[in-house]
Amino acid sequence: MGILETLGNLAHQTAFFGLSFGNYAMIVVACVFLYLAIAKEYEPLLLVPISFGMLLVNIYPPIMEEGGLLHYFFLLDEWSILPSLIFMGVGAMTDFGPLIANPMSFLLGAAAQFGIFAAYIGAMLLGFSDAAAAAVSIIGGADGPTSIFLAGKLGQTDIMGPIAVAAYSYMSLVPIIQPPIMKALTTEEERKIKMEQLRPVSKLEKILFPVIVTIVVCMILPSTAPLVGMLMLGNLFKESGVVKQLTETASNAMMYIVVILLGTSVGATTSAEAFLNWTTIKIVVLGLIAFCFGTAAGVIFGKIMCKVTGGKVNPLIGSAGVSAVPMAARVSQKVGAEADPTNFLLMHAMGPNVAGVIGTAVAAGVFMAIFGV
C-alpha cells in the first residue's frame, strides 16, 4: 500500500494533473511558434526564446511567480533595463549612413508611425483606458523593446505580456504581412523604379549624427532618453572607431544575452490564464491593424514622394518605415527584386527603417509626455 501511495503521489506531482485545457492549447501554440522559428526561420532569434518561455510557463506556471526564475527575468523588463540594452545593441549594429545620405527618409519613417495613432483611436473605441490604449497602439511600430518599455512606464504591466508577444510576433511575420499590402498599393512600374546610388557619408557625419540626435530628441522629449540615448550610444561606439571592444560586446555577447532574457521572460507572460481572454484577442487584432496601417501609410507616402520627385523614389521603401530592423528593409528589397531582379533597394530602404526606430521611440515619448510620465 505504501508503494502504491508513493507512486500515486508521484503521479499527481506531474504536470498532467495540474494543467488546464488552456495550458494545453498554449503548449500547442508554443510548438507552432517553434516550428515557424526553426523550420521556416521566421526571426528565430526572437521566436525561439519567446516560444520556449511560453512552453515553460504553461507546463510549470510557478516559474513566473515570485521566487521563480523567469519572474526575475521579467522584472528586468518592467524596470526598462532589457529594452534599453536591446536598443544599445541595435545601435551598435546599425549603419545610419543611408539615413544621413537621404534625410527625406525621416519623412517615410514618420509616415509609418501613423499606424500607432490609428490603433490608439481604435483601442479607445474598444474600451481601453487612455494609458492602456497608448501601450497597445505602440505595437504598430513593430518594435518589441519599445512596446515593453512604454507598457512598463505607463503602468500597464498586466497587459505587457500580450503586447510584447503581439509586437514580436508581427516583427517575425513581416515577410508574410507586408508584401500583399505593398503590392496592392503600388503598380508594377512603381515597383521597378531604380533609385540613384546614395552619396558617400563621411566619418565625421556618422560620429556627429548620434550626438546631435540625442541632444535634439532628448531635449524635446526627455523621457525618450533611455531608448534614444542607448540607441545612439551604441551607434557612437560603432562609428567612433576607438572602442572596438565595446562595439563588439554591445552588438554580440551583450545583445544575445539580453535577447535570451527578454525573449524567455516575454514568452513566460503567456500563461493560459493571462493570455486566453478577450482583452488579449483585442490587443492582437489591434496590433495587426496598426501594423498594416503603418505599412500602408509608409507606402502611400512613398508614392507621394515618387510623384514629387518625378519618379526618383521607389514607393516600396516606405514600407520599411516600421522599425523592424533590418527585416522590413529586406522585404522592400525582396518585393522590388521580384519586379526587376536588377533592382537594389536595400540601402535605400535602410534609411526609412532606422528612421522608424527613432520614430517609434519618439511616439512612445509623446505618449509619456501626454500622461505625465
Describe this structure in words.
The protein is mainly α. Helices cover 73% and strands 0% of the residues. It contains 20 helices and no strands. It has helices at 2-13, 21-38, 44-59, 69-78, 81-93, 97-101, 105-111, 114-125, 130-137, 144-153, 160-172, 174-185, 188-191, 203-220, 225-240, 244-267, 272-275, 278-308, 327-339, 346-370. α2 (21-38) runs antiparallel to α3 (44-59), α3 packs parallel to α16 (244-267) and α7 crosses α20 (346-370).
What's the short story on this structure?
With 373 residues, this protein is mostly helical. It has 20 helices and no strands.
> What is the CA-CA span between the terminal residues?
63 Å
What's the average pLDDT? Answer: 90
Number of helical regions: 20
Radius of gyration: 22 Å
Helix % is over 70%
Quick one: biggest sheet? Answer: none
The structural class is: mainly alpha
- Share of residues in strands: under 5%
Overall geometry comes to: globular
Write the layout of secondary structure elements.
Layout: H1 2-13, H2 21-38, H3 44-59, H4 69-78, H5 81-93, H6 97-101, H7 105-111, H8 114-125, H9 130-137, H10 144-153, H11 160-172, H12 174-185, H13 188-191, H14 203-220, H15 225-240, H16 244-267, H17 272-275, H18 278-308, H19 327-339, H20 346-370
